[in-house]
């Protein structure tokens, strides 16, 4: 039984670091508030004060409480809690979400309690103040709550093990429960192993600091295979602190728990039982040559409370029971003195140690380090021959030694790979004679030859350099200071005692934390969604979304549209597309065919058996059965059907002497199975539950005595083809035919593809006409991530779009003023507000788009096409959004600040809310929204925006590459070799650059970098330049046709690297046919649609840097370009509509044409001539207004678009070359010539270093 105890700390003063408080454990509960005066307060001169408690023995601590110093103004408002078994090696306690900071007091008298989410089993506790009363000083009284803790411990020295021998030859179990705790001195080691002759095995081992479980049940394929697969969990388990493990197995279902993390999985094998022969070994495998073993090292460390199916293994070993063999195992845990130091800051941390004299001359330095950062200074020392110095650093995840001989001269050697993997690595540096040797772990040494003997200077700087104001100004951080842990310092074979450094008696330091390694695995748990790969630095984690089909900081957002209807609204034509029906939800994308040639947009999903199938010889007892496997999963099909307005599936069924129903009792002889696995007996479009066919519905059955033609049971062929249109039952998952065994009896069937049309979520709307009204829905399930998108229109100056609250947490999106949308939330750290301000009022009775997203990494807010607002989440803080009330849409629970207007297409985490259904039963709210632009008829195409007018509507095509009354008329131009168009326009600075992200870009590429490009072209020329985007900072994107006519996309986004090239397919596109190109880039991933083919590929580096691009540029372009779109801009259309502008330059002869017209085959409702005339006038004026308005914005990056690359570019390049082409001129970028041309054409105000140019 656990007896609760408390440790009472009374009237304690500790004025020096290292003063320990040895207190008896008291069996009592006492109040801190009533205990007299006093408390602990350190001296003001203490650099890192802390209060340490010795509980006399290991205890299980479940809660702590703090109070300020009695009778004064001293208290601690925030602190860290550390624990240790020895009082030397400490570990920081982290609460839920990895938060290390504890909230303290706000006055001297109040008591703040913290119940620990997981208990601490330790002897020593240390309270480290972080913040205190700014008007006073540190003052602290503490109380600790917990229970006595008893354990059975065994110590393994790396060569020992425990063997548990069974009473019989083998042990076969269908259920196992194995639990233990361990602390390890190394990252490798076997904890548990057992195997059987049948091929079963179970192995639990430490590998690279992670716990790996190998488990197989009667799978002979894995027995003789070297590819045994492990389930791994947790990391950094070699930290010399206790970790708990629990393995629970029932049949093939297994739960593996390490500390607070659990993984559920299903084991391999054909059986349900685990059969182990003779014995289980713990702590190692006693015979390394034993057949079937594959492990490397035995465990080195301590194990406690080891239970196998309720049997206390260590207790049996201590009592020397005969079934236990203990080889070299002791029953007390020895504690090694491996004390670490944490370098906290990547800019200012350093440790200075004196360079002791070496008897043999030269110097030798050894130490160990672990980190997540790919860059950082490890060691810097000045040499006796000034100004020479040596630097040992991590650079690009490798260990690099640099000998600086002068300011301009240096020599380097490198070794290792991925030394920032979070594991401990040993590094040594030594000099002898004219050589300096660098060694990493057990790898071969790297040697650097010197011109003279060298000796180290007076001091060695580890981890970083002091500020430049110090006297040792020779030491400079090459990139970043080291951020991580170091230990086992040795200089000239003399170990360094860091306690002396801590006490100020040796060397110097800054921003260090002694006696602990503060490394933290930020990828555990993995917050990257949809299969994104997690990587990390010391203070942040990052998600690589490559190849997942998702994007964003945590791979939350799908790059695909949710439906074919959504693709049509972006201007796509019929073809194969990947759709993601649940958006950011758990379902992945699937490929479908979008048929956009009709008035309705059809989504077509095929299956594995679309050809006619003949059936004979089946009976009701042995029926013919066919299961259909669709190109989408059942879950994806359900989401697609639920999202669609209507679905149907054709069933072609012909028969001869084969009935569908028994003519005597009406029981079915054949049937089909729906998506839910239910048997259905209706054929054709009739209502569910009625055993009839289409001919009965149409009253044209060949024998009116029957409801199906086949039931007439004639010798001639009959037909019962029909269309199933009750979408809740679709698609057909299986067909069963049972009456084809008679003479001359046979059936012929074909199940067509699933066809659905419409997207009922696009125009699902509600109108709010009372400020106190709202719609309510269940609580948002958005603990870790939430994306919210919707459209609204209103004339009101403000109002809350939606709100969901918890006890303290909340999330809210509102129109806070006529031109400002605000996204607010609080996850327990502090309230956060993101606001986007429009330059025009948003309460103009027109539709506006809002998208708000919050994840554990960042928050963002998008309004229409305005610049996206980002805010990064703190690296240390609460992560989970905890809500418990209903979600209110259009208002709040207090019925205040309600929204007046229309909201449509409300989607949260991929789920579209049915506003219309809820509005039908809510006072003050009506279903739908009045106005011409509120229906599903898609009046404006190709991203055109519908604008309400008093007597109708017009389409705003300013954001579209198309024109005309409905934004359907492609803007096309025919070019010859000498013609070109240059258009310069400007864009808000925040669209192109995000300052908050640049600080962390050293660890990965900018995942927010993205482009969307689309155009239509027709040519017979190759090579040819189709589109180029370039900047004055030497970056470019080029879309070209290569010499063989194949499409190539070139990216030169990093001026210090080679360009990347993406070649989707080798076939020629210079065939005189129209080709529609869509390109979407997210970071390193390129998604491309060529006509109806959708392709994904990662960029690859290319050696021949500019040759293909140069040759394409030299040939110009002959052909037709149409409907050119870059992001939300239409440069070709804007250039043609603004020829008189100083930002437009036209060279040669341009001919407007309609060559792109055949590419658009969609239709819309016709407009009257007057409406068309009004709309055309509006387009022209609006385009000019938009361009002029953007030019007059506050902050810009200048952008230049050049339509058709002509000989002018090539001639400029040639003019810069000599007759003999040199290698460096070979790398001259293609944008130089156009940069000059654009600079001359643009106004002086636009000739800046931020100019970006587009060539088409």
TrEMBL record:
Disulfide bonds join 902-929. One of its GO terms (cellular component) is membrane. It is a single-pass type I membrane protein. Keywords: Disulfide bond, EGF-like domain, Membrane, Repeat, Signal, Transmembrane, Transmembrane helix. Residues 40-147 form the F5/8 type C domain. The chain crosses the membrane at residues 1185-1210. Residues 153-333, 340-517, 764-929, 987-1155 form the Laminin G domain. It is found in: Membrane. Residues 519-556, 930-968 form the EGF-like domain. The keyword Methyltransferase does not apply. Pfam families: F5_F8_type_C, Laminin_G_2. Residues 555-607 form the Fibrinogen C-terminal domain. It comes from the Eukaryota. InterPro entries: ConA-like_dom_sf (IPR013320), EGF (IPR000742), FA58C (IPR000421), Fibrinogen-like_C (IPR036056), Fibrinogen_a/b/g_C_dom (IPR002181), Galactose-bd-like_sf (IPR008979), Laminin_G (IPR001791), Neurexin-related_CASP (IPR050372). The keyword Lipid biosynthesis does not apply. Residues 1-18 form the signal peptide. Belongs to the neurexin family. This is Contactin associated protein-like 5a.
